[in-house]
Each structure stands twice: as C-alpha cells, then as structure tokens.
Amino acid sequence: MAGRNRGNDRYDDYDDFEEYEERQRMRRDYEQDYGDYGEYDDYGDYDDDEYDDRYDNYYAEEEDFGDDYDYIEEGEYEDRARRNVRSRSRSSSSRRDDRRSARSSSGRSSSRNSGRGRRSDKNQDKKKRRIILFIAELLILAVVLFFLYMTTRVEQVEKAELQTEKIEETISEEVKENVEVGEMKGYRNIALFGVDSTTGSLEKDTRSDSIIIASINEDTGEVKLVSIYRDTYLNLGNDSYNKCNTAYAKGGPEQAISMLNMNLDMNITDFVTVGFGGLKDVIDAVGGVDIDVDEAELQHINNYQLTMADNLKLSGYTEVTHTGMQHLNGLQATAYCRIRYTTGWDYMRAARQREVLMATIEKAKTCSPATLISALDAIAPEIYTSLDITKDVPAMIADLPKYYIQEEDVSQMGNGFPQQDMRTSGQISAALGDCVVPRTLSDNVVWLHHFLFEDEDYSVSQQVQTISNKIDADTSWMP
Length: 479
Known about the structure:
about 55% helix, elongated
C-alpha cells in the first residue's frame, strides 16, 4: 500500500507525484519535530515508553486519515495533517510526561516502598527490642518476687545477730594466718546444732544434742561432716570446763561457736540450729529418705516416734515394721536419729545423725526448685541461723548440685571427735557425770585438720595446746 515503505521512500511507490511530494513534506515536518523515525526500527535500542511514543506519532496519519487521504484537497489535508501532528505531538508529549511522571512516581513509590521497607525493618527491630526488654523485665520481676518471697521467710526465721567481735577473739592468730595463706584457705565452715527441743526456744536454755561441723570446699563442692560428741569434756569458751553441749545451753550459738573455735583451731562464724520438729518437716518436704534399719534399731525407733508424736501434738505415727533398706518419712527418720541405746551408744547416735543429714541432702539434690522452696518454707519457723536467708541460702540452693559429702561407713563411726583410739570416758565429778575425754586434745585436733583440710603437717595453736594441757591435768587419773 502507498506510503507504507518507511525506510526508503521512492517516487514509484506512490500513485502520483503530488502524493509523493505531500508525503515527503509530512516526513520533513515530522523529522523536524521528532527526528528521523527510521532510527527507531530496532526496538531493543529503546525503552518501552520511548519506543511507543515515537511509533504512536508515526502511525497517527493512517489512524486519523486512512488510505483515502489522497481525496482531501491539498491545503486542507496539509492543514489537518499539521494540526494532527501538533495534536499528536502534544498528546505524545503529554503521554511521555505521564509516563515519566508514572516512572518518577514509580521511582518515588519504589523509594517510598524502600523507605517503608527500611522503616518496616526498623519497626521489626523495635518490636524485637521491645520483646527482649519485656522478657528481661519479666525475668527481673521474677527475681524481685523471689527475693521478696525470701524476705518474707526472714520474718519467720529466727535470725541471729551474733557479736562477731567476741567470736573473732576466740580465733587464734595462727588460725587466721592459716585461713589467709595456709591449708584452710578456700573452706567455709558452718556449725550445725540439733537441740533437744520440740516446742521450746532455739536460742539457748536447751542443750545441743547434736553438734556437727560442716566444712565446705568452695572450689570443689566437697563437704565433710564431723560430729563433736556432745559429752566431750572441753573449754566452754569462757575458761570453764564441762560437757561441750553445755555451751549452747549457757550462751546460745555464740558461746557454742566460740567453744568450737577455741578447742579445735577453727574459724567458724556461721551456724544453723534446728529442733526435732524442724528436722521432721524438712525431711517430709523433700519426700522422705531411704535408710537401712537393723534389728537393734527396730526395737527403739517406734518408741521414739511415740514420744515425739506426743510432744509435737501429732495425731499418730506410722510404725516401722521390718528391717533393711526402706523409705522413712520425717517422723520416722528423726526418731532414727535419736536412737542411742544400741551398740556404740552416743557415738553411734551421732553417726545416725550424719547418715540422715547426708540422705536428706542427696534427696534435696534431686528436687525441683519449687520443692526446695517448699522445704525452706516448712522449716522456716523452726530454724535459727546466722545465715542471710535472702543471700546465703539461695546461693547455696543454686550450688546444691555440685555439693557431695565424703563419709566413711557410718557403722564405723569414723567421722567423730574425739577419735576412738584417742579418747576415754568416765566420771570426772559427781556434778558432771560421765564425760568423753580426748587423749590428748592436741592429737585429736591434728587428726581433725588432716581430715577436713588435708593438712599433713598441722601443728596446733598455743591456745589449743594450753587447753589440752588443762584437760590432761583434770583427768590425769583416768586410764
């Protein structure tokens, strides 16, 4: 069809010269306004919008006039064509502007979207930070509530305000140096007192039937327990001599601690005192303990249960009916601790106390934190201690899994002071009755430091040596 050859127009492509000339004029007008449209034959050289704009104008003539434009008078056609070109130019320009605007808008939109993306990322980061802060706040709240809970327990626990200056005076200079740079460094020593009291005072005016030193190696978690036999003839911490359990009755835990420091070259400043009711409750709180009951013990355990149930105003008790390893509840295990009318007498009773204490600690290591808190709650009204319930006790509970107790076979009664081959017994005076007498005190203290602190070459302080000499003089007639 005439006029369709865009690239190489020739005269013989048209019907007559006038049509050819008119076409050439339109071409020149178009190229004057838009440049040579032939350069746009290759679509790949241009973007979509620019390619479409150029070819929209090129096909404008045929879209508006069709193949019959040769019937229009030359002047009218030329005028219409030029108006059309200008109209198309404006329309095309408008479309280009619209497209550029659209692209610009798209760019801005993309930029905005990118900005929104960045803002979205920032919002996500903020949300994450808020979640982390919220979780942290919950943890802090939980810790605060825990310590508030522990603080309320302080109101139930009898907190001892010891005169630490007086206790420090009973610790020898040799011991203080040993704690700083010697074999005692890194150990924490705590006195455990079990008093023969069910409803009475825990502070004093009651003898301590059980005296145990718990020595904790703070590096390894190893715990060693040593029973100090309650009838041992010692300095009471005030240069008077009597059975060592008298110290608690006379001056409470402060004097009892001083007694231990003076006679044994120790540096004890903390203690825990519990009555029989408290021991029963804590054993029940951890779910009871497993104990091997022999025939001789079976004859006495239920008698002690009967007496304790009456003193604690309990409705009854569960009899232990057979020997062997079995699960004991709090009342049964506490009654087991009190048995002394078997072979070994009071020495064996001290061994049973250590056995129940070890079993209770091992059972506590398997308990959940909630159970341990319940145990603390149970024993709180029946405990008297110098320990800080809000600081020391939670830390010790947290470290409980790492603690382990070294103990010889309790039937051998090895962890008792004085040692079996370094003691005697007898009546020193009618007022004192039968006493356990160390032979000699200094030798027993050397054994004690070897056992607790693995000190192979320990030499007692001058203070201990003086007390040892006094005991030897007071009991020189005894075998």
